[in-house]
Write a structure and sequence with these properties.
Layout: H1 15-32, E1 46-51, H2 57-68, E2 72-77, H3 89-97, E3 103-108, H4 113-117, E4 124-130, H5 136-150, E5 157-161, H6 168-179, E6 183-187, E7 203-204, H7 208-212, E8 217-220, H8 236-243, H9 247-250, E9 258-260, H10 273-276, H11 283-307
Parallel strand pairs: 1-2, 1-3, 3-4, 5-6, 5-8, 6-7, 8-9
Helix pairs in contact: 1-5, 1-11, 2-11, 5-6, 5-11
Bound molecules: phosphoric acid mono(formamide)ester (CP).
The site of phosphoric acid mono(formamide)ester has 10 residues, from helix 2.
Length: 308
């Protein structure tokens, strides 16, 4: 059972809660593999996605997850809503809350936005990515993918390479993976590595080769040009030369290593298409696991609401 009515970050979840979400997702994935994906776990309940930033995977997987489990679901984004008339975040959230909404799934460009609205609402709030802070449901689906491949998280060596500075995915993964006993190495251009990130319990490697050597999991991160006011590396081709997870780099990882990327991917920058499409790549499987993990989260939040 989840302790909080909201899922705001992996910082707020215990190792037991993370493990319970992953175990529940294993069952949800079995549902996805059947011809009848419809369950009644959320029947009569309502789920709203409120997205202030673009999304394909997170938004659609939450929408499908809620529909597969029988809820009434609706979407609202900045374009076409009263946000564009200047309505505040809190007024927008309260308006959705007052429509008897059970769960609000929110993505926002400001770190801490879901933490700000959650205490004011009866609805449960799920963080679908807040600024450069956390993307907890992505890290949960990443850990679910790792557990499905290796049967465990504890003791795994995970290399996370790329734009660490802007990456809420990296932050959530470091928090979650270290809670579950994995060893995390980070590597990226010096301008994209936050000072003191080692304090989160991970290592910082000196090169992409050092990060990937002996790794069980190699995760590429998207270069987030939309969050850069100035260029943090000389050119895209130089980035690819020094930081890309190429086939040669991947040879340094463990024989059974898997490649992950949260998507969307800049092909030829974070990694070449040949690595993206290689048998070691579980990037497409991550998308499917994203639906299962989001079904698990909705199920567990609703179970908690049913107890109240
Ligand atoms: N990984 C991820 O958050 O993708 P979207 O931006 O497409 O949701």
């Amino acid at each position: 059972m989840l302790k909080s009515k909201d899922l705001l970050g992996l910082k707020q979840l215990s190792a037991e809660e993370i493990n319970e979400i992953i175990t529940t997702a294993e069952m949800m994935k079995m549902v996805l593999d059947t011809n009848n994906k419809k369950t009644s776990h959320l029947q009569g309940r309502s789920v709203v996605t409120l997205f202030y930033e673009n999304s394909t995977r997170t938004r659609l997987s939450f929408e499908l997850a809620s529909k597969y489990m029988g809820s009434v679901s609706a979407n609202i984004s900045t374009s076409g809503s009263s946000v564009n008339k200047g309505e505040s975040l809190l007024d927008t959230a309260r308006t959705i809350d007052m429509m008897a909404t059970d769960i609000i799934i929110m993505r926002h460009n400001q770190s801490g936005a879901p933490h700000f609205i959650a205490p004011h609402l009866k609805s449960s709030v799920v963080n679908a990515g807040d600024g450069m802070n956390e993307h907890p449901t992505q890290a949960l689906l990443d850990m679910f993918t790792m557990k499905s491949s290796f049967g465990k998280i504890e003791g795994l060596k995970v290399a996370i390479c790329g734009d660490i500075f802007h990456s809420r995915v990296a932050r959530s993964n470091v928090i979650g993976l270290t809670k579950l006993g994995a060893e995390v190495s980070l590597f990226g251009p010096p301008t994209m590595l936050p000072m003191g990130i080692e304090k989160m319990g991970c290592k910082v490697a000196g090169s992409v080769h050092e990060a990937v050597e002996g790794a069980d999991v190699v995760m590429g991160l998207r270069v987030q040009l939309e969050r850069q006011n100035q260029s943090l590396f000389p050119t895209v081709s130089e980035y690819a030369n020094f930081y890309s997870i190429t086939q040669d780099v991947l040879k340094l990882a463990n024989k059974n290593a898997i490649v992950l990327h949260p998507g969307p991917c800049n092909h030829g920058v974070e990694l070449p298409t040949v690595v993206y499409d290689s048998p070691q790549s579980l990037i497409n499987e991550q998308v499917k696991n994203g639906v299962a993990i989001r079904m698990a989260i909705l199920y567990m939040l609703m179970a908690r609401r049913n107890q109240q």
